[in-house]
Amino acid sequence: MNKARDTKPHIGIFGRRNNGKSSLINALTGQDIAIVSDIAGTTTDPVKKSLEIDGVGPAILIDTAGIDDSGVLGEKRIAKSKEMLRIIDFAILVISHNMFDEPEKQLINDFRKHEVPFLILHNKSDEESIDPDLARVIVEKYQVPLINFCATNPVNLPDVALLIRETIPETAYRKRTLVGDIIKPGDTVVLITPVDTEAPEGRMILPQMQVIRDVLDYDGICVVLKENVVAEYVKKMSPKPVLAITDSQVFPKANAAIPDDIMLTSFSIVLARQKGDFAEYLKGTPRIDDLREGDRVLVLESCSHHVTCDDIGRIKIPRWLREYSKKRLEFDVVAGLSNIERPITDYSLIVQCGGCMITRKQIHQRLKPAIDAGIPVTNYGMMIAWVHGIFERAIQPFNP
After folding, report:
1. Could you point out which of 152, 160, 214, 220 has its C-alpha 20 to 30 Å from the C-alpha of 306?
2. Domain boundary residue among 172, 198, 223?
C-alpha cells in the first residue's frame, strides 16, 4: 500500500479479529470489496478502500488486522496495523458482543498518543446488542460517540455516516487555501516553473497544478512561464502581478528578476503553510546557522521518484547546505512515509519537502518526534531561501 500517494482523509478501522471490520467496510462502501470470513485473522495487512462520505467528500478507509492477533506473526500484524496511526486522520474502533477490555483500552491510549479522533461502533447487534451500562461507562470515560450497528443488516447506516461526518475534524478534509487569502479577484499571480530533468514529460508537477487551481478558485489570473523568460516578461508585464511563486530551485534567479515591490515566494513554502508545521519551520530554519562539523541532516521526501543528476533532495539540498555552512555534513534521505532507520536524535536538522503527495496529518505526525526532541525542522523552500539570503522576502507574503 503506497501511503504517500493520496491526500484524501484516511479513516482507519480497528478492532479484534472477527468483530466485523471488513463487513463494516463493505457496508460503508456498498460493495463486497473486503474479504469476509468466519475464520479469525482473515485480514492480515492493512488494505485501502475508497468511498465518498456525504459532507466530507472522497475518503480512504484502511482495513487493519485484529488487535488481538496471536503468535510471532500476529504480533507483527498488530505492529503494522498500529503503524497506520501515523497516517490516519480518524479511526473507528469496532467492538462486538460487549467485549471491551485491555486490547481496546490500549488502542484508545494509542489513538490519544497520536492525536487521532475516533468513534466506537458496537457491531453484530443482531446477535447481541450493546449493554446499556457498558455503553454509559465507555461514553462517560472516553467522551466519544458510540453506536450500535449490524454490518450484515445496516439499517442505520446513514446514522453511522452522519456520526463520522460530525466527529472527523474538518482539517482532515477542508483544505486551507494556498494563496486565496493573499490575493483579490482579478489579481495576477506569476508562476515560474522550470522545465528541467525532474519535470514530468508532457505535464506539470502537482504543486504547480494545485496553485493554478487555487488561484482560479479565487478568481485570480495565472501567468505561467519558465525562468529563462522572466526578465523579458517583467519589461512588459501588465497588469502588474501582486505575487510571484517560483520553483525553489531557481529562487536566486527569481529574486533577481522579480522587482522588490512584487511579493515573491515558492511553491514549497506555499505548501508548507497549508500542510506543514509552519510555526516550527519559521523557528527551525535559522538554526541552519548552528550546524557543526559532522552533523547529520535528514531530508524527508513525500513521494518516491526516479533520481536524476539534478535531484533536489539527494543532490542539491546537500550541496547547498554544505556550501553555506562550510561544514562536512552527513545526509540521509527517506522517501514516502518509510521508516526512519536511525534514532531521530541522531539528526541536527530535518528538511521536509512541501508534501504535495501526503496529508497534513501525515506531515505533522512525521515531524512530531523531531519537534518533541527539540530538533529544528525546516522546509525545502524555506531552507533554500535561507542559504541564498532571501528568507525574509520569501516568507513576507504570509507575515501578519
Report:
1. 214
2. 172
